[in-house]
Amino acid sequence: MRCLRVIIFTGLTFLLAQSSSAQQKGKQTAKAAAKDAGADWPMYHRDFAGTGYSPLGQITTQNVAGLMPAWTYRLQSDAPPAAAAKGKGKGPGGANSEATPIVVNGVMYLPGAGRVVALDPETGKEIWEYPVTGGAPSRRGVAYWPGDNNNPPRIVFTIGRRLVALNANTGKIDPGFGKEGEVDMVVPYNSVPLVYRNVLVVGANSTNGPVSIGNARAFDARTGAKLWEFNSVAQPGEVGHDTWEGDSWKDRSGANAWPFYFTVDEQRGLVYLPLASPVPGFYGGDRKGANLYGNSVVAVDVQTGKYKWHFQTIHHDIWDHDPPAPPGLFDIAQNGRTIPALALTTKSGYMYILNRETGQPIFGVQERAVPKSDVPGEQAFPTQPFPVKPPPIARNSFIMSDLVTAADTTEEHAKACQELIAKNGGVANAGPFTTWPYRAEGAPVKSAVVFPGGLGGANWGGVAWDPNSKYVFVVSQDDGALGWVEKTRDGYDRTTLDGAGPGRGNFEVRVGNVAWPCQKPPWGRLTAVNTATGDFAWQIPLGITEGLPAGKQNTGRPALAGPIVTATGVLFVGSSDDNYFRAFEAKTGKQLWATKLERRGNANPMTYQGRNGKQYVAIVATDTLAVFALP
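The structure assignment produced for this chain is given below.
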């Protein structure tokens, strides 16, 4: 009977089989299309260009206000009893995570406290866990290498000076990499390796000393063999060596390639290295000259490390105002031609928009005279590069009329700031690149207030780029630093008055448990720059000061991390120290949604699509990964 039925319905069976096959292919095509449309978040800032842009479109400006918590995952062991009862929160220590998770092929990977984990991105359930010994994994994230015919896919991360590879499928050490799964980098790197084809690029977090130079290096992703090393302090015979007077280049520490991640121009095969200040950072009497490649972005061949071009953002830095994040890459349409561009942000409060092929400024840069130094032996560089456009993204000067008043905040705050200035014997500021005054031993207090302060205008979060509006977005803060330079046992260094401010001598006072800057708000900003013109499209305060009356709360707050943006024009950002996670309309800066996290979301967010077709948005809030979705 069964055979007869098959014979009778052979034609229909064939048609049904064709239909079923077509449906299955359609499902596979739809699934592939969803994946191609950006289901994954495969690297720190999603793509090699570091755009922080997702083409996902389920969450829109119309429905983002409906976002609800989907799941959470504790990163450390001191989880509350309720979380511990659910089996979450393994591993010792590890608060204040700055990690951005990655999602590849439907699996989420991130570092926890004392471990690296793979999670189901729809539920937060652990797939595998790798307990780390002999140190802690970088609290900033992990990287994914897809493998090849001879090697499985790998999760690559750093533990101090150790570069470690795990089998991405099992979470076990992959012994085919380096020596039993590890490479000794010699100089530590506490951030996320760049994985580009079969090249792993790492930076350096060095200390003072000849063995701790801050060079970027690259290793073979298959074997762990070292491929190249770029000298961040130009050596004899190299471009820029003449910017170091005498032998001041020898055994010079610093100029670290320390950012959280790197960006790559795939078409040109260039990786962009943002390099920090030489050490010591606040006194340069022993290193006269411009000091290349300190405070520069350097383009090098990603396969060989060969130098292509550089752009220096500060000559002879004595403020520790390096470019803390790699540039975001995009194209600009100008006068009928397409210009390959990048946007580089700095702690000094400027954004430089450069041709990423040549390093030339697109909207112009002017070398302007800046204040001199009165510190013995120090010669501040006579000029610094000021971008013509865009305008400064953070405060870079101060006059006494900028001092906060009771009308701006409260009587208590204004009085505390006045007392802080009195303790410092008054403060002086000569505009951008104000130098630190010299204080001889036993002399009265003599202090400068420098803007931006030690944590800079923009910090490590980097920029996000929206190809629809052509806007690039950046988070910055307005918090000054107090101090002077005095002679120490080892030379000269910056000093601050005891109790001058809670954050390394910042120009701020503590009100309750929160630091309030001493100049008029804003204290933190979110800015959109129109890359077609170099002008601001909009700028708003980012964050609120809840200790103030309702009408005064919109001050902006200090922030370090950066934003992301989606195809539907939704901009997500945490970062501010008021613990809010927010969504804005990318075109206008209008706030669309906000939720208060248990702790600060001091990390770049990310978004991805689950296998269930739902779009999720995630951010690490100090010690907890918080994930949101539409109901």
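Interim note for the steering committee: Residues 1-36, 78-94 have pLDDT under 50 and may be disordered. The chain has one domain: 37-629.
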